[in-house]
Amino acid sequence: AQSVTQLDSQVPVFEEAPVELRCNYSSSVSVYLFWYVQYPNQGLQLLLKYLSGSTLVKGINGFEAEFNKSQTSFHLRKPSVHISDTAEYFCAVILSGGSYIPTFGRGTSLIVHP
Amino acid sequence: GAGVSQSPRYKVAKRGQDVALRCDPISGHVSLFWYQQALGQGPEFLTYFQNEAQLDKSGLPSDRFFAERPEGSVSTLKIQRTQQEDSAVYLCASSQRTSLEETQYFGPGTRLLVL
């Protein structure tokens, strides 16, 4: 079975500072990786995904993530955050060759201070 | 166009009551997923439909949970004899097809509180 670990439950950061949200996974087979964002009282929205190819994936709102197979990580980064980036961020994994059911991490709350 | 909608947005139930949660997916979307999100946790898969067929219900926590999508569009998640541990946000998502290339679009969720 696969699992997803988001090491930080909360990440406070000042506006215009860079941020990294960490995600590690465990799986005995290849995986596909996703980051979602959830704004208050809204549903999840896909930020970016890694299916194959380049390990550096660019998503919406200036976010990017890098797949590191040797470290089983898929950390999310943004060079300069805005107040509007304050939200909950979820990492998710889908096993290759399996169903299309994602396993989500517990989430990281990004809090951007002015 | 309209996104995925869910109703009611909030539901308070007394323990033992039955509840029904509705999901209206994006028009034409074949795949529909239900998730349960407990407080402070990520979403957990409950069940999945392709059109009207329920292809996977392995995530339903007990036989008190039942989902249907009789005409391949609107779906209802029913919880019988609710318990306090059922308190959570129930999320619905739809996608055009069942494929990794297809994005799942999530509704805003129904927040269920069982007293």
What are the SSEs and their pairings?
The complex is a heterodimer of chains A (114) and B (115).
Chain A: E1 3-5, E2 10-14, E3 19-21, E4 24-26, E5 31-38, E6 44-50, E7 56-58, E8 64-68, E9 73-78, E10 87-95, E11 103-104, E12 108-113
Chain B: E1 5-7, E2 10-13, E3 19-24, E4 31-37, E5 44-50, E6 53-56, E7 65-68, E8 75-79, E9 88-95, E10 105-106, E11 110-114
Parallel strand pairs in B: 2-11
Antiparallel strand pairs in B: 1-3, 3-8, 4-5, 4-9, 5-6, 7-8, 9-10, 9-11
Task: Describe what is shown at a glance.
The complex is a heterodimer of chains A (114) and B (115). Chain A is mostly beta strands.
Structure description:
The complex is a heterodimer of chains A (114) and B (115). Chain A is built from no helices and twelve strands. By secondary structure, chain A is an all-beta fold. In chain A, strands 2, 5, 6, 10, 11 and 12 form a six-stranded mixed β-sheet that branches. In chain A, strand 7 (56-58) and strand 8 (64-68) form a beta hairpin. The model of chain A has no long low-confidence stretch (mean pLDDT 92). Chain B has 115 residues and is mainly beta. Chain B is 0% helix and 48% strand. Chain B is built from no helices and eleven strands. In chain B, the strands form two sheets. In chain B, strands 2, 4, 5, 6, 9, 10 and 11 form a seven-stranded mixed β-sheet that branches. In chain B, strand 7 (65-68) and strand 8 form a beta hairpin. Chain B is globular, with a radius of gyration of 13 Å. Chains A and B meet through strand 6, strand 10 and strand 11 of A and strand 5 and strand 10 of B.
